[in-house]
Design a protein that fits this description.
Number of strands: 11
CATH architecture: Alpha-Beta Barrel
Radius of gyration: 19 Å
Strand content: 15-25%
Helix content: 25-40%
Order of helices and strands: EEEHEHEEEHEHEHEHEHHHH
Number of domains: 1
Largest sheet: 7 strands, parallel
CATH topology: TIM Barrel
CATH superfamily: NADP-dependent oxidoreductase domain
CATH class: Alpha Beta
Length: 334
């Protein structure tokens, strides 16, 4: 697989997000042994940028990754996150917690579950509005000084917030949703597809992808496949009860029917390129800059191979113009 640079390291251009192995998506398809095998196979295929978080399954996802990386830990850049906590276990309601004591405690817990001495990339999962960013980020910077963390990242932030953190300690990466139907992080009007490239309003994040390029940080798109929708393989009947997509506006039946107009464009480009829709969707994110490292998630080997194949798809200017002009999605992302 082609590689991209991350803080002086060469990593596979397409990474791997692990959330769905423990939480969020179809519970009937979860298989711990199969997930461990898939992660190890992914590393063998050149995937070296792997993403988890403490709240994905209340630590289960980190445990899973720790098991998978035994004996091959040095081959990957391992990323996990702090700043969220489970408020109610029954409903799995999450709350933001940016207190320094939480940051420090959760880092120790993550290190133990992951079976490692150092976290390569430690993200602030969400900024806590009740705690000054300087306090949270300062505590995370102390973890770097202590050798427990190598690099720090942010998730779902604005340009201004990224700049504030950068003034305290270097931001190595920003992770946010980015795909053909979600372009908030590029400063697109309304954060949607359909001729994006304008600036977001005062309540939007602004061009965070551009900020990362300007400041030597990686931009890490999660959900580059639109939570599976951009592959054309998702329907209302394929979404199980308990799958978090079942409550999202874009995945309601009428919205999905209208949003198939986006998939139709992706399929048309895929047919022309001899690629799959998934590969075109991921290749579009890769084309947004050499500092962009998408982390599609999957639990199945055939999809892993498909996703990795996106690194070899070269989109022309004509392809990109066609993809950039897809219709705006119907329904908000949450």
């Amino acid at each position: 697989m082609r590689t991209r640079g991350f803080q002086g390291h060469d990593v596979g251009a397409v990474g791997l997000g692990l959330m769905g192995m423990s939480w969020g998506y179809s519970a009937s398809e979860r298989d711990d042994a199969g997930s461990v095998e898939l992660i190890r196979n992914a590393v063998g295929m050149g995937v070296s940028f792997i993403d988890t978080a403490q709240v994905y399954g209340s630590g289960h996802n980190e445990d899973l990754l720790g098991r998978a990386l035994k004996g091959i830990r040095e081959q990957v850049v391992l990323a996990t996150k702090t700043g969220l906590a489970v408020e109610d276990a029954a409903s799995y309601t999450l709350k933001r917690d940016g207190r320094p004591e939480h940051v420090k405690r959760s880092a120790e817990e993550s290190l133990r579950r992951l079976g490692t001495d150092t976290i390569d990339l430690y993200y602030l999962h969400r900024i806590d509005p009740e705690v000054p960013l300087a306090e949270t980020w300062g505590a995370m910077a102390e973890l770097v000084d202590e050798g427990k963390v190598r690099y720090l990242g942010l998730s779902e932030v604005t340009r201004a917030q990224a700049a504030e953190a950068q003034g305290i300690h270097p931001v190595a990466a920003v992770q946010s949703e980015l795909s053909l139907w979600t372009r908030d992080a590029q400063g697109a009007e309304g954060g949607t597809a359909g001729g994006g490239g304008g600036r977001a309003g005062s309540d939007g994040p602004g061009d965070v992808v551009g900020w990362c390029a300007e400041n030597g940080a990686a931009f890490v798109p999660f959900s580059p496949l639109g939570r599976g929708f951009l592959t054309g393989a998702v329907s209302t009947s394929s979404i199980e009860d308990g799958d978090f997509r079942s409550a999202q506006p874009r995945f309601q039946e009428e919205a999905m029917k209208q949003n198939m107009r986006i998939v139709d464009v992706v399929k048309r480009v895929a047919g022309r390129k001899g690629a799959t829709p998934a590969q075109i969707a991921i290749a579009w994110t890769l084309a947004q800059g050499e500092h962009v490292i998408p982390i599609p998630g999957t639990k199945k080997m055939r999809y892993l191979k498909d996703n990795i194949g996106a690194a070899g798809v070269d989109l022309t200017e004509e392809d990109l113009r066609e993809l950039d002009a897809v219709p705006a999605p119907v329904g908000s992302r949450y």
